[in-house]
Design brief:
The complex is a heterodimer of chains A (about 160) and B (about 775).
Chain A lengths: L4 E2 L6 E9 L2 E6 L3 E6 L13 E7 L2 E7 H4 L12 E7 L2 E7 L1 E9 L12 H6 E7 L2 E6 L7 H6 L1
Chain B lengths: L2 H28 L5 H20 L3 H18 L7 H22 L6 H15 L3 H12 L33 E9 L1 H5 L4 H9 L2 E8 L17 E8 L3 H7 L7 E7 L6 H6 L14 H13 L3 H12 L28 H15 L9 H8 L15 H27 L7 H24 E3 L1 H4 L2 H12 L2 E7 L4 E3 H22 L3 H6 L5 E11 L2 E8 L6 H10 L11 H6 L22 H10 L3 E7 L3 E9 L4 E9 L2 E6 L3 E5 L6 E4 L4 E6 L2 E7 H4 L13 E6 L5 E6 L1 E9 L13 E6 L5 E5 L1 H12 L2 H4 L4
Parallel strand pairs in B: 6-8, 13-22, 17-19
Antiparallel strand pairs in B: 1-3, 1-4, 2-3, 5-7, 8-9, 9-11, 10-11, 12-13, 12-20, 14-18, 15-16, 16-17, 18-19, 21-22
Classes of the chains: A mainly beta (about 160), B alpha+beta (about 775).
């Protein structure tokens, strides 16, 4: 993680954590992130979608790991020790998101976030709440409540 | 929760305890215990419920409790003889009272006809409708109007006050002393206690204590820190004045004390007449706590005083038993938070009195103190100090300890892996840590452990109702009520026990006429017992009825297609047929046990808890159901296995045996995908766990693997094929649903010593999935 970047703008201020999956940059609200830890092999669960990597032991709790890249429909490779698990809290549940690397903490205001343009495919639109520009790069804001498998997202 | 509500909740919790006391007291009476103390305890329980209900304005409850109490009072005073019939009525009144409490608790209503019928029955018992009239009057008393302290004559008085101490009670070498003892507030602040002083004094000789509460102001003017009470004491002793002074040695400076020798001229009657003394029996039965509690009750309960007066003429001539403190107000128990209560004045007084009894500032033992006073008589066992804790907090603690255990196991494994010598300081320290961890775990689990009493205590009522419904005479014998088991298990014990008891009464026991023909006593006995055996809790329900009619069971099983017509079954196997789904021996469904559930449901719920149930029966002698359950649902005994490089846990309660299959025992049905294995002479489906869970596509070579014969809830058997068995282990159950969702074929997860998550197999799901696919007809007709 590098220095905190502050962008100018008006509206409600938010702090986000940005991370990388492949060449893409994404971010989530910092308040939902509980901790960040290195990849440890997960115990696979039977009959689950491919993006559910399995479960790991987080200090006694059973934590499901979602491969966020696979969830977004990106090309993914087998996780290595260099991959990172972001432990996030969604509602009452805690789960781990597998990403390539965590990059920055970003300060921004609501009005800087642009709606996702229509060009994006459905899968991306489901999970991306909005976009914003940062130093000429594009960062996508992830809608965390959608990353769990459908049935559960509805029930939760 | 708002304070009043929380006090109310406490009241209802206490009601439960009181109802338990009441019922056990009545049962003891039914069993022939006509001891005055038992009857008193029963009376007190009802009285306390009524008193508490008064504080919360629970009219219905008060009305019923009052009549009930009146009846009990008449038994207590000997007007009504507690015959079997009377006690039976009381037992049913007890059930109705419990309904009233329940209704008040849930803001529901009691079945009016039932309550009224019971009231009529009690009225008839009392003789006349005097009770009902009193109830009307009493209701007015329940408002918290500041009440002027009245020291009234109390029923336990040992002698007519007029005839009080005659000079003749002073024996050879003895002298009578009049002592006036008025403590200043300072005495109490120095942690001295009037009660103890009086008790000490009582050791010197025969003592009569009269409490003078004339200075106690109306409630609204009462100051909790002030001392209002004084005592007039008449002591007959052979000790001299110095010995008496010695008793007051520590309090002398903080009280007003006069000690005068009684001269025959100044004789007793005159002094005692205008204020009839609350006489306390001498020496060892003397109990100042009770005296104070009674005093508290008179002020607090409001209704107690007139009632005591009313009862007095009857009981006065009797020799006094140990003083009872029936009037101590139960709702005042949560005195720890007096400032939060709307009736602060009452509480303040109660607390004051409590403080005088206990001399422990109330918060130290909030619930215990007034209760101790309420239990009154010196014979009452000292209540164990307990605290009420939110279950949530305990669960959090248990979770944390579970994690500690896992961490500790991981650490141990890491140390071994790192190659440190077993004798190294680290390894030794770790060993100590392990012991300590286990101890903590056991202690924490013990917090949740509760005696099965809470479930058992509901059963006598159930048995009574079942006996009434069937017209049979039933005696319920309960054993091992104090056997402890985890709370999660207790909650789920109730249904199977209820069902087994109903079954025993409905199907097991014969009617009185039939029993007599068989040469048995007309009253059938049903025994409910709990015991610990091999780290599990065993619940037995047995009856001395007709036993299982195997011929009939067999016929039904054949007619329902559960077994083949020519199946050869042992007696035990036949008996266990009743657990098969779809089996119900009742030809006409009775109201009682025919509620659409059969023994198969009982079995399913028991197995769902990781337990087993079995039956043994002897024709004409009776049958016995035995269910064994784990002591807790937080841990599970499991068989750790590997399949497709995954470590999995199979619940031991499902496992029948493990075996190494030979190639010629495995057969393929139809297309060759669905395998069955021959175990002795039955074919059971062979489930490749790795494939069933989708961990691998290629089938496992059965000859290189291990098969585990499992039995599912429904009784269906199957063999699970795994790569290897690692061993047996107790594992902590972790929910998958908490953070994820249900996964088919997986019951839960656990964390192994290496810190990795292992999945616990859902054997039933695996077996039923295979059966849906295979649908082997043979399997459906399998013998148990």
């Amino acid at each position: 993680m590098t220095e905190t970047q502050t962008l100018q703008g008006t509206g409600q201020r938010r702090e986000l954590i940005s991370f990388r999956i492949g060449e893409q940059e994404y971010c989530v609200d910092i308040m939902s992130v509980r901790e960040i830890r290195g990849w440890t092999p997960a115990t696979p669960l039977p009959r689950t979608p491919s993006y559910v990597k399995g479960v790991i032991n987080l200090r006694g709790a059973v934590l499901p790991i979602i491969d966020l890249g696979a969830r977004l429909g990106l090309e993914t490779s087998a996780p290595t020790a260099r991959h990172v698990i972001m432990v996030v809290k969604i509602g009452d549940r805690t789960l781990g998101l597998l990403v390539d690397a965590v990059s920055d903490i970003i300060n921004l205001t609501e009005d800087m976030v642009q709606p996702t343009p229509d060009v994006a495919c459905d899968q991306v639109k489901t999970f991306v709440k909005g976009l914003f520009a940062l130093d000429g790069r594009m960062v996508s804001l992830i809608a965390l409540d959608r990353v769990l498998p459908e049935t559960e997202a509805e029930a939760a | 929760m708002d304070p009043f509500e929380s006090i109310k909740a406490t009241f209802f919790q206490e009601c439960e305890e009181l109802l338990t006391d009441l019922e056990s007291g009545l049962l003891a009476m039914e069993g022939g215990d006509k001891d005055a103390e038992t009857i008193n305890a029963v009376f007190r329980a009802v009285h306390s419920i009524k008193g508490g209900a008064g504080a919360f304005g629970l009219e219905e409850l008060i009305r019923f409790a009052h009549v009930f109490e009146t009846a009990l009072d008449q038994i207590r005073s000997g007007v009504i003889e507690p015959t079997d019939e009377v006690v039976k009525i009381l037992l049913r009144a007890n059930d109705v009272l419990a309904d009233h409490v329940q209704a008040a608790r849930s803001d529901g209503a009691v079945e009016q006809s039932r309550s009224q019928a019971m009231l009529d029955e009690l009225q008839a018992l009392i003789g006349g409708d005097g009770g009902a009239m009193d109830a009307e009057e009493d209701e007015e008393d329940f408002g918290f109007v500041p009440v002027q302290m009245v020291v009234e004559e109390v029923p336990e008085e040992s002698a007519d006050p007029g005839a009080a101490p005659a000079a003749s009670d002073v024996g050879e070498g003895e002298r009578a002393w009049r002592i006036e003892f008025q403590p200043n507030p300072e005495m109490y602040t120095k942690a001295n206690e009037a009660g103890l002083v009086l008790r000490e004094l009582a050791r010197l000789g025969r003592i009569e204590v009269e409490i003078d509460g004339a200075e106690v102001p109306p409630l609204d003017q009462l100051m909790a820190e002030h001392a209002y009470l004084r005592w007039n004491i008449r002591l007959v002793t052979d000790k001299d004045v110095a010995a008496i002074r010695e008793v007051f040695e520590f309090v002398e400076d903080d009280c007003i004390l006069t000690i005068v020798e009684e001269t025959p001229a100044a004789a007793p009657a005159a002094a005692f007449e205008d204020e009839p003394p609350a006489v306390v029996p001498p020496a060892d039965e003397f109990d100042p706590a009770a005296l104070l509690a009674r005093l508290t009750g008179e002020v607090g309960g409001g209704e107690a005083a007139p009632e005591a007066a009313e009862a007095a003429p009857e009981s006065a001539p009797e020799p006094a038993p140990a003083p009872t403190a029936e009037a101590a107000p139960q709702p005042a128990a949560p005195a720890a938070e007096p400032q939060e209560m709307g009736v602060a004045g009452l509480i303040a007084l109660a607390q004051k009195a409590t403080a005088e009894v206990e001399q422990a500032p109330a918060p130290a033992a909030p619930a215990a103190a007034p209760k101790a006073a309420a239990s009154g008589g010196s014979s009452a066992p000292a209540p164990q100090a307990t605290i009420r804790v939110d279950l949530d907090r305990v669960d959090r603690l248990i979770n944390a300890v579970g994690e500690l255990v896992i961490q500790q196991a991981m650490l141990s494994q890491r140390v071994i892996e790192s190659g440190l010598a077993r004798s190294s300081a680290v390894a030794l320290g770790l060993e100590d840590l392990e012991l300590l961890t286990r101890e903590i775990q056991d202690s924490v689990m013990a917090i949740r452990a509760q005696p099965v009493k809470s479930v058992f205590q509901r059963m006598p009522r159930l048995v009574r109702e079942a006996a009434d419904a069937t017209g049979k005479k039933v005696r319920l014998v309960m054993e091992g009520e104090n056997t402890e088991v985890d709370k999660t298990v207790i909650e789920r014990l109730s249904d199977p026990i209820t069902h087994m008891l109903r079954n025993a009464i409905d199907h097991g026991l014969e009617g009185p006429a039939e029993r007599e023909m068989e040469g048995k006593p007309p009253e059938g006995t049903v025994r409910l017992a709990a015991l610990h055996r091999g780290g599990r809790i065993v619940i037995e329900v047995s009856d001395d009825g007709r036993g299982i009619n195997r011929e009939r069971v067999r016929k039904i099983a054949v007619s329902k297609g559960l077994i083949a017509e020519d199946a050869v079954l042992s007696d035990e196997e036949t008996d266990n047929l009743i657990f098969l789904p779809g089996f119900s021996t009742a030809e006409t469904i009775s109201d009682l046990s025919g509620r659409g559930v059969g023994m198969d449901v009982v079995k399913r719920s028991v197995v769902a808890l990781g337990g087993r149930i079995s039956i043994s029966s002897e024709p004409g002698k009776g049958s016995k159901f035995t269910m064994s359950l784990p002591l807790t649902l937080a841990v599970l005994d499991g068989m750790v296995v590997t399949s497709a490089e995954q470590t999995l846990v199979a619940p031991l309660s499902n496992i029948v045996e493990s075996l190494t299959p030979k190639a010629d025992e495995v057969h393929f049905l139809g297309g060759g995908q669905d395998a069955v294995i021959r175990i002795r002479d039955t074919f059971v489906p062979l489930i490749d766990v790795g494939r069933a869970l989708g961990f691998r596509d290629t089938p496992l070579n059965a000859a290189d693997s291990v098969a585990i014969l499992v039995e599912s809830e429904g009784g269906g058997k199957a063999a699970l094929l795994v790569d290897a068995i690692q061993g047996q282990r107790q594992v902590v159950i972790k929910s998958l649903e908490a953070n994820y969702q249900h996964v088919d074929g997986v019951a839960a997860a656990t964390i192994l010593g290496d810190g990795r998550v292992a999945l616990i197999l859902d054997v039933d799901a695996l077996v039923s999935t295979s059966r849906r696919k295979a649908a082997a007809p043979r399997e459906k007709r399998m013998a148990v």
